[in-house]
Amino acid sequence: MTETTTLADLPLREDLRGEHPYGAPQLHVPVVLNVNENPYPVAPDVVADIAAAVAQAAVGLNRYPDREFLDLRADLATFLRTESGAELAPEQVWAANGSNEVMLHVLQAFGGPGRTALSFAPTYSMYPEYARDTLTTWVTGRREDDFTVDVDHAREQVRRHRPSVVLLTSPNNPTGTALPLATVEAVLEEVSAVGGVVVVDEAYGEFRRAGVPSALELLPRHGNLAVSRTMSKAFSLAGARVGYLAASRAFVDALRIVRLPYHLSAVTQAAARAALKHSAALLSTVDELRTRRDETVVWLREKGFDVAESDANFVLFGRFADRHSVWQGLLDRGVLIRETGPAGWLRVSIGTAEEMQQFRTALQEVVAEK
Ligand SMILES: *Cc1c(COP(=O)(O)O)cnc(C)c1O
């Protein structure tokens, strides 16, 4: 019986029929530059500390974990103070299994049937899924040709759709574009008028160029603003699944209502806290990756490609009449990048020097063939 059951036999929600599980291909190839991971593995001394902390946590695994994980939230607050000068109480920080789950909490708490979430496309392809899963109406305004967000357009979109949630991604994925704080503030002003909340997704915040501010600065003045971050990218800890956000206490209290009890395992909490003790070491590769990103942008432009300005650890470039064949040609040469973003563009994550050299060689071969 089991083998003959198809999805059509099961009472799947009508709106989920025909949907596929999200995810970039996980292929075993020599050069993996498709999901914006930090290419450098965790250093041995940090691994040792994480392992020891997890071993200690394992002793207590007969008990449920700390549901409020205020120790981890305090460590994250301390980190944000060091990184951006933000003064935050532990109660103003929230964490979950990746910022994907944090964002789902946001949509569960503030979205829902009859409500709307607004963002500006092209942007992160997961957002419409959180909206779908929480039965929230999903709408997008546009980004300009250079992928910036026009302030007047943004204001107009908020007035038109009256969203309860606005997601602003800065630096944006897949374009790399950071938003000026003036744009965030203008959106906040309109959103506050319609009673909504704004989340600035700074998953790539640590990679921003010098002089580019973090929206954390705006938190003290806006109770309906949250800034989300993750340990998946700059921190080299994608496998640990730890994302977090900073906001007002009231905002965080709303998320506490919808989270599953004990959603963050004792193992995750221990690993994250041990890692945060080494935040400087874990982030020590960020400068190098930033430099290599800027070099990649220059090189691609020299080769005649269109390249989006990037404040992240990836670069969007194009434009190709047949981007899929370019993507496939790179893959045939052992280099996996991402076929995403507007038609004609491809995205490459910044890897090690050797990986980027292999990317360059492969790309030149592929375009020479065309
Ligand atoms: C990678 C990414 C995240 C982080 O996801 P995690 O669940 O924390 O791994 C969040 N937002 C954007 C825009 C991303 O690209």
UniProtKB/TrEMBL annotation:
Needed co-factor(s): pyridoxal 5'-phosphate
Pathway named in the protein's UniProt entry: Amino-acid biosynthesis; L-histidine biosynthesis; L-histidine from 5-phospho-alpha-D-ribose 1-diphosphate: step 7/9
Record-linked InterPro entries: Aminotrans_II_pyridoxalP_BS, Aminotransferase_I/II_large, HisP_aminotrans, PyrdxlP-dep_Trfase, PyrdxlP-dep_Trfase_major, PyrdxlP-dep_Trfase_small
CDD domains recorded: AAT_like (cd00609)
Molecular function GO terms recorded: histidinol-phosphate transaminase activity
Annotated Pfam families: Aminotran_1_2
Name assigned to this protein: Histidinol-phosphate aminotransferase
Organism (species): Kineococcus halophytocola
